[in-house]
C-alpha cells in the first residue's frame, strides 16, 4: 500500500464514440503511485495503457470521454478540474514523454526554442533568460555541445537525442509526476538502456514519481517498484514487482511472465498467450474480459469482478486466482 | 539561399522560351483574320491584301517569328492594332491596376478565410465550422459578376456608401505621380491622403468581390491542413506540456499548416490576376484581363502575346516567391535546395 501517493487513480472509466459503436476502453481502473516511486503499467497493445495516461493528462481525443472515477493529484481531481486548474498543473506538476520522439517534437522549431516555450510558460524565467536555461537543460539530459544543439531542428538529430530533448521538455518545470509512454520504443537497445537510466537518475534527483508505460514486462521489472498489469481496459493485477514475479495470482499475469523470453530459450520454446483481446465495442462484454481466453474459468466468473480494498498490497481482479 | 534563387531563375528560362513559341503559334492558329478585321466589312479583297502586307502577315511564319523575337529582345512587344498604342506601355499601365485590385482582394480574403479555417478546424462540428462550410460554398457558388453587381446595387445604388463603379479614381481626382503604379502606395508617397482615400473607396467593392470569390479555396485548405496538423504527435506533446492554447494553435499548429495554404494562395493569386475580367468589366477597371480579352476578340496578336508572356513571367516569379517562403517556414525545405 502506498502511504503518500503522488497520484491516486480510482475507478477510472473511459469510452470512445466511434462509427461502429462505443468502445469501452477503460473500466474501473485504479492504481496509485507513491512520491519518488516508479509504477509500471504493463499490457499488450490495446490494453488501455496510453488511454489511461491521456485521460490523466486531459489530452484524450475529442471522441473519448471519461465516464467515471477520479485521479487525485494532491487535493486536485484531474478528471473533474476546470481547464484553468488543469492548465496550472499540466506541464508543471505532471509531464509526459511519448514514444516516437522524432514525430513528437515540432519539426519546424529549433529544439532549444521548444524547451524555452515550456520554460516561459511554467518556470519563473524571463524571455531573455529562457534560451540559456534551455541550454542548461540540454546539458542536464546529456547532450554534448548543447549551445549548438539548441539551434538544431529535430530532423537534424538522432532518435535518441530527440528523446533526450523530450525529457528536457518534460522535466523543464521539475514536475512531481512523469508519465513515460513507451519512451524507448523505436530506439535501439543500447540507447534504450541509456534513456531509461537518464529518466531514473533525473527522477531520483528531483524526487519525482514516474508512471512507466511499457509492453515489456522484463524492462518493467528492472525499473519499477510496483507493476500494474492491464488487460482490455482492466487492471487485472497490481503488486510490488518482486511479489508479482514470485507469486503471480492472475492467470493472465502468469501467462505473461511465462511468455517473457529468456536468452537461454530457443525460438520454438517461445510461449504465447492463446486468444486475443475481446472486441471492446461488444454489448455483451463479460465482467472479466479475460474469461474467454482463460484456462481457469469457472461458472462464477460471470459475476461482477471482485473488488479488493486498495490498501491490499497485492490486488487481483479474479474469482479463481492462482 | 542565394544560389538556390539563381538556380530557380535559370531553370525558368526554358519554360519562358516555350511560352514565347507556343503563344506565337497559338495566336497565329486562332480563327479570325486580323487583316480582314481591320479592313472592315466593306473592304475589297485588294484592300485586305494590302493591309496584310503592311502588317507583315503575308510573310512565312518563321520570318514573322524571327521579327517577333528580335523585337522582344529589344523590349518591344509590338503595337496594338486596335489602339495603335505600344503593347508594353499599355501593359505597364494596366498591370498595376490589376495587381493592386487582386492583392487587396487577396488580403481581404485571407483576413477572413484563414481565421475562419483555423477556428473551424479547432472546433470541428461547431457552429463556426458550419458557418465556414456555408460561407465557402456560397463564395464559390456565386459568380463574380453577380456578387459584384449585388454589391454595386446595395452599396452604391441603394445605400450610396460607395462611389460609382467607374474605374480606379473618381473623375474629380487626378492619378498620383507614378512610382509603383499602385494608387494606394503612390498617393502615400505623394503625401496625398485625399487621393489615397478616394482610390481606396474605388477599390473596396471590387476587392470585396474578389475576396468573397477566393475565400473558399483558402478557408478550405486552411481547415484541412490545420485538422491534420492538430492531430499530429507534436501538437499532442505541446498540449501535454501545458503550453497556452494560443501558442499550441498558432505557433505550433498553424505554422506547420501554412505550407499548403501558401501554395493555394499562389494559385489563387495568379488565377485572379488574369481571370478577373468579369470584375474588371463590372467596375470599369482598366486592368490587364479586360485588355487581353478585347484584343483576343479583335484577333489583335501583339497584346495577346504580350499578355500571355507577362503572365508567364509573373507566374514564374510568384512560384519563386513561394519557394522562398517555404524555405523560410520549413528548415527541411532549405536543406533539400
| CATH fold assignment of the largest domain in chain B | MetI-like fold
User: What would you say the CATH architecture of the largest domain in chain B is?
Assistant: Orthogonal Bundle
Described by its quaternary structure, the protein is heterodimer
CATH hierarchy, class of the largest domain in chain B:
Mainly Alpha
- Helix amount of chain A: 25-40%
Low-confidence regions of chain A: none
User: What is the C-alpha radius of gyration of chain A, as a whole number of Å?
Assistant: 20 Å
**What is the number of E strands of chain A?**
11
- The name of the CATH superfamily of the largest domain in chain A reads P-loop containing nucleotide triphosphate hydrolases
* Morphology call of chain B: globular
What proportion of the residues of chain A form beta strands (DSSP E)?
A: 15-25%
Q: Most extensive interface: pair and counts?
A: A-B, 29 and 23 residues
The topology string of helices and strands of chain A comes to EEEHEEHEHHHHHEHEHEEHHE
- Percentage of helical residues of chain B? over 70%
CATH topology of the largest domain in chain A: Rossmann fold
CATH architecture level-2 label of the largest domain in chain A: 3-Layer(aba) Sandwich
Distance between the termini of chain B: 8 Å
The average pLDDT of chain A is 88
Mean pLDDT of chain B: 86
Amino acid at each position: 500500500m502506498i502511504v503518500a501517493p503522488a497520484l491516486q487513480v480510482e475507478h477510472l472509466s473511459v469510452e470512445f464514440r466511434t462509427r461502429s459503436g462505443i468502445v469501452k476502453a477503460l473500466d474501473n481502473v485504479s492504481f496509485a503511485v507513491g512520491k519518488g516511486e516508479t509504477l509500471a503499467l504493463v499490457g499488450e497493445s490495446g490494453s488501455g495503457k496510453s488511454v489511461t495516461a491521456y485521460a490523466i493528462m486531459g489530452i484524450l481525443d475529442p471522441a473519448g470521454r471519461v465516464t467515471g472515477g477520479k485521479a487525485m493529484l494532491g487535493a486536485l481531481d484531474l478528471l473533474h478540474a476546470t481547464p484553468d486548474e488543469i492548465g496550472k498543473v499540466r506541464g508543471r506538476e505532471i509531464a509526459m514523454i511519448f514514444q516516437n520522439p522524432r514525430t513528437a517534437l515540432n519539426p519546424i522549431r529549433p529544439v532549444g526554442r521548444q524547451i524555452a516555450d515550456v520554460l516561459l510558460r511554467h518556470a519563473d524565467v524571463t524571455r531573455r533568460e529562457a534560451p540559456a536555461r534551455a541550454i542548461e537543460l540540454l546539458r542536464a539530459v546529456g547532450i554534448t555541445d548543447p549551445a549548438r544543439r539548441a539551434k538544431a531542428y529535430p530532423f537534424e538529430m538522432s532518435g535518441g537525442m530527440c528523446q533526450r530533448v523530450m525529457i528536457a521538455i518534460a522535466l523543464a518545470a521539475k514536475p512531481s509526476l512523469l508519465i513515460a509512454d513507451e519512451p524507448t520504443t523505436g530506439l535501439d537497445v543500447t540507447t534504450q538502456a541509456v534513456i531509461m537510466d537518464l529518466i531514473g537518475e533525473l527522477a531520483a534527483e528531483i524526487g519525482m514519481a514516474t508512471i512507466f508505460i511499457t509492453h515489456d514486462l522484463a524492462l518493467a521489472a528492472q525499473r519499477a517498484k510496483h507493476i500494474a498489469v492491464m488487460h482490455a481496459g482492466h487492471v487485472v493485477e497490481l503488486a510490488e514487482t518482486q511479489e508479482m514475479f514470485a507469486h503471480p495470482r492472475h492467470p493472465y499475469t502468469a501467462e505473461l511472465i511465462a511468455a517473457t523470453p529468456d536468452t537461454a530459450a530457443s525460438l520454438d520454446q517461445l510461449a504465447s498467450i492463446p486468444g486475443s483481446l475481446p472486441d471492446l465495442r461488444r454489448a455483451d462484454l463479460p465482467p472479466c474480459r479475460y474469461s474467454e481466453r482463460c484456462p481457469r474459468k469457472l461458472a462464477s466468473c460471470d459475476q461482477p469482478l471482485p473488488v479488493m480494498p486498495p490498501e491490499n498490497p497485492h490486488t487481483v481482479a479474479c474469482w479463481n486466482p492462482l | 539561399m542565394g544560389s538556390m534563387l539563381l538556380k530557380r531563375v535559370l531553370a525558368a528560362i526554358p519554360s519562358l522560351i516555350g511560352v514565347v513559341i507556343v503563344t506565337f503559334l497559338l495566336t497565329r492558329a486562332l480563327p479570325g483574320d486580323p487583316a480582314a478585321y481591320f479592313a472592315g466589312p466593306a473592304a475589297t479583297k485588294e484592300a485586305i491584301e494590302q493591309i496584310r502586307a503592311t502588317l507583315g502577315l503575308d510573310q512565312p511564319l518563321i520570318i514573322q517569328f524571327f521579327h517577333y523575337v528580335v523585337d522582344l529582345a529589344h523590349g518591344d512587344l509590338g503595337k496594338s492594332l486596335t489602339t495603335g498604342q505600344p503593347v508594353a506601355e499599355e501593359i505597364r499601365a494596366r498591370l498595376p491596376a490589376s495587381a493592386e485590385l487582386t492583392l487587396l482582394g487577396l488580403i481581404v480574403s485571407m483576413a477572413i478565410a484563414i481565421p475562419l479555417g483555423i477556428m473551424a478546424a479547432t472546433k470541428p462540428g461547431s457552429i463556426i465550422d458550419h458557418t465556414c462550410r456555408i460561407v465557402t460554398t456560397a463564395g464559390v457558388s456565386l459568380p463574380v459578376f453577380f456578387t459584384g453587381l449585388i454589391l454595386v446595387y446595395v452599396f452604391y445604388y441603394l445605400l450610396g456608401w460607395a462611389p460609382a463603379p467607374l474605374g480606379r479614381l473618381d473623375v474629380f481626382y487626378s492619378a498620383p505621380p507614378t512610382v509603383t503604379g499602385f494608387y494606394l502606395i503612390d498617393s502615400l508617397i505623394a503625401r496625398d491622403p485625399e487621393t489615397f482615400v478616394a482610390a481606396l473607396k474605388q477599390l473596396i467593392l471590387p476587392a470585396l468581390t474578389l475576396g468573397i470569390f477566393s475565400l473558399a479555396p483558402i478557408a478550405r485548405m486552411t481547415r484541412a491542413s490545420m485538422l491534420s496538423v492538430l492531430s499530429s504527435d507534436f501538437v499532442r506533446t505541446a498540449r501535454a506540456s501545458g503550453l497556452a492554447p494560443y501558442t499550441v494553435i498558432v505557433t505550433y499548429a498553424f505554422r506547420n499548416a501554412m505550407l499548403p495554404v501558401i501554395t493555394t494562395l499562389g494559385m489563387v493569386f495568379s488565377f485572379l490576376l488574369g481571370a478577373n475580367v468579369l470584375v474588371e468589366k463590372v467596375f470599369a477597371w482598366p486592368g490587364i484581363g479586360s485588355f487581353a480579352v478585347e484584343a483576343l476578340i479583335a484577333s489583335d496578336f501583339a497584346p495577346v502575346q504580350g499578355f500571355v508572356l507577362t503572365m508567364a513571367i509573373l507566374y514564374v516569379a510568384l512560384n519563386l516567391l513561394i519557394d522562398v517562403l517555404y524555405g523560410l517556414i520549413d528548415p527541411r525545405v532549405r536543406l533539400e535546395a
